[in-house]
Amino acid sequence: MASRALWAQRLLPYLYIGPALTVACVFSFVSMGISMWVSLHDFDAFAGASEFVGFDNYHRALYSDDSYFWLAMRHTAVYVVLSVCGTLLTALPLALLCLRAKVGQALFRTLYFLPSITPGVVLALVFYHIFGNYGQLLDNSWTALPALSLLGVWAGAGYNMVIFLAGLTEIPQLLYDAAVVDGANRWQQFRHITLPMLRNTLVFVTVMTIIGSFQVFTSVYIMTSGGPERSTEVIAYSIFVNAFAVAGQMGYASALAWLLFAVIFVFVFLQMRVFRSRRIYD
Amino acid sequence: MKGSRRIALVAMTLGALLMVYPYAYMVGSSMKTRKEFAEDRRSLIPSRYQIGEQLAHFQGEPSALDWPGADWSMWRNYVDAIRYGGIDRYLGNSFIYAVVITSIQLFFNILAAYAFARMRFFGRDLLFGMLLATMMVPPAVLLIPNFLVIRELGLVDTLWGVIIPGFAGAFGIFLLRQAFLNIPAELEHAARIDGCGSWGILTNVVLPLSKPAIITLGLFTFMGAWNMFEWPLVVLSNQDYYPLTVGLSLFRSETTADWPRVFAASVMGAAPLIVLFLVAQRYLVGGISLSGMKT
């Protein structure tokens, strides 16, 4: 009897972590394994046919003349750069302004935060019209991609502002007082106190924006379908179209997904390091 | 000093107007008739409610009040979106998905987080590291293989197919574990002396003390589930199971779409989360500030 109770005691933890661990691992590691297998095959999920082709799918994505991988990657990179610059140039100033304004902070935070809690599909539908009303931004292959990243920056501004606000309020007022005594002006205070003290937050916001932007899908799907003239075809959209809209391209689409993963991984790795160094519920 | 504050206030107010404008546009357009929207896509107020048109009508001149549909109530598009657009079903589906995902994920995550925080067992650190590593895989990469897993399980085009991947999340476990670790171990020892097992400790001591973290995680999970789009788009083909996001996306390329009605549906899709946000704001903002949690 006693030993049975002991066994139950020993197994209990696994019972506790079992369900969550199973789900989390199946839909990440097991999935990744399947994805790797599929990417090495000429795979048609719906016909149920598959043939081993080695690295042909990767080769096709990287070197074939009819491949849109590099085109999609270029568009994605442009979108990422625009989004990161736009985010840093709006969210941080907004946070500084919000602190300075003193009154109405809660109201501002609420209003600026609205897009973060609105379905992306709704935002995309509304901006589809707003961009259409003012200058047909989405009909021009030069402005469509910047317009999409404008939506991304607009939607993320409040969320990132809140993160910057948290970072800013952690900076000891003492440092500023000391700087004032030393005769530092506003810019010098910002340059030599605020920026260095915000380093972790800046890295965090930048990396999160990069990772998120690399995977932009909803606004492209709703607003442009990759057009006009493929000018907004980004990698996540390519993956989706090849896997689910074109028959028999799932292997190729999986290869695209792995190539995307390879690019993102650097940033994911950075994110994990920052994530671990952040103090949570201290 | 005073001046810079005023400038900041003005700048923040202008920014706030930019944030609110798309919402005003959405709500205003949702009250237009089709003709009003076709005639004037930019205005925030439907023609028949504009003072100029009302005056013209009062003076017996032709005005927007003579247009077809001028007797529409403000809510007509909302009623029609439900009556003819099936929006009520999409909303119901979204609600079911969000509630089921949130409750099951909270349950699974709490159990796992408690074990990782308070129990000793073989391979604990290894398994926890593995769990954290699952966060490193970007969702865009998992789209296809997750679909294949769901297909192998025979769950394509079912409610379960949509919700099962959301049953657990490494981030939630990480967050809860941190909260649980902050509870003084003495409280648990006391409960154990009083005869509580680990389940009793979890429900009587740990959960009540980590309410804020649990509420925060629950809200984020709910919002994430309500807003999810690409996954249900891939898994579902039967319109009866569509969540609101996928239902709305059907209109995207229709040039003949009844846009005011689509806007009405959009408002109904966005409103529940906005209400939830206003009610529970402090948990959400606190959660983001502490952890950079993403909806």
Description:
The complex is a heterodimer of chains A (282) and B (295). Chain A has 282 residues and is mainly alpha-helical. Chain A has 2 domains: 2-59, no CATH class; 60-277, MetI-like (MetI-like fold). Helix content of chain A is 75%, strand content 3%. Chain A contains 12 helices and 2 strands, in the order αββααααααααααα. Chain A has a two-stranded antiparallel ribbon with strand order 1-2. The longest helix of chain B is centred in the C-terminal third of the chain and has 33 residues, at 259-291. Chain B folds into 2 domains: 2-74, no CATH class; 84-291, Orthogonal Bundle (MetI-like fold). Classes of the chains: A mainly alpha (282), B mainly alpha (295). Chains A and B meet through α1, α3, α4, α5 and α6 of A and α1, α5, α6, α7 and α9 of B.
Oligomeric state, counting identical vs distinct chains: heterodimer
Whole-number tally of structural domains of chain B: 2
CATH superfamily of the largest domain in chain A: MetI-like
Residue-averaged pLDDT of chain A: 86
Helix content of chain B: over 70%
Percent helix among the residues of chain A? over 70%
The geometry of chain B reads as elongated
> Structural class of the helix and strand makeup of chain A?
mainly alpha
Distance from N terminus to C terminus of chain B (CA atoms, Å) equals 37 Å
Overall mean confidence score, pLDDT of chain B = 87
How does the helix and strand content of chain B classify structurally? mainly alpha
CATH architecture group name of the largest domain in chain B: Orthogonal Bundle
- The low-confidence runs of chain A, each spanning 5 or more residues with pLDDT under 50, are none
